[in-house]
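Schema walk-through. Below, the input block comes first and the output block second. Nothing else is stored per chain. Lengths vary across the set, and this one has 256 residues.
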Amino acid sequence: MGFFAFSFIASSIYILNDYMDIEADKLHPEKCKRPLASGAISKTGALVLFILCFGAGVGIALFIKAKFLFVLMIYFVLNLAYSLGLKNISILDVIILSLGFVLRVKAGGVITFIAISQWLMIMIFLLSIFMAVAKRRDDVLIKLKNGGDMRKSIKGYNLEFLNVVLSLLSAIIIVAYIMYTISPEVMERWKTYRMYYTALFVIAGLLRYLQITFVESNTGSPTGLLYKDKFLQATLLLWVVSFYIIIYVPDFTIFK
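--- output ---
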């Protein structure tokens, strides 16, 4: 039920954001295919759907848990402010996007009574802002190619700045992840000091993402990359497998 509630609220935000961005999306090579920008759905139809999704999300959340509804409303208000103008402020736009993913994780923890560690919150935020900055770089490349701003916040970015930010965030993510794997609470919880082995796959995945960003200039859709890029899929799979082996097969020879 919580999944549906959050999905309805997130959908209402996406509808509103597309409604506000119709003219800008028409100029984008990919976003011009979206329902509103392409004219497949009318503005009135979009507003009706927005109201229905918001009402359904709040209605379901009311029957779940007050704290869950509270987190859900923080997510909605934050993204509403984003859609109504904050997205036009460079730096703040990527921070708000990243906080949205953190709130999704927090909502999941609230509804399942699972305590969310500070490490997960930090890593989700860092990885989200890393991908958001990579997407902004993709928008800057489109601007340089077509000569038009895809969004107002792009005026506050250029390739040099975004390249530096991506490099900085990559280093912070790697250091934060290694600190997580060697933190006393993690070693105590899993009864092993070998968690840092998994950092190999995190580093490999980040390097591949940077390669896609800088060499291939193809970071417009992080989700699409995960579906298509075999290297990223392999590193993610090996990352999961390495955790399983370290935690549940402690006597495995290679990890001794």
